[in-house]
Amino acid sequence: MRIAMTYTRIRTEERMLLDAFEQLGIDVTPIDLRLVVFNPHDLDDGETRWGQYNAVIDRSLSLTNTLTAVQMLEHYEIRCINPFRTIEICSDKLSTALALIRASVPTPPVRVATTSQSGLRGIEEIGYPVVLKPTIGSWGRLVARINDRDAAEAILEHRELLGSVQQSVFYIQEHIDKPGRDIRVFMVGQRPIAAITRSSEHWVTNTARGARTQGLAISDELADISCRAAAAVNADIVAVDLLECPRRGLLVNELNHSMEFRNSTDCTGVNIPEHVARHVAQIAEDTQTPTEITA
Amino acid sequence: MSQTATVKVNCPECDAAVGFERSPLNGEITHCSDCNSELEVVCTHPITLELAPEVEEDWGE
Question: In chain A, which residue's Cα lies nearest the Cα of B4?
Answer without folding.
Answer: A19
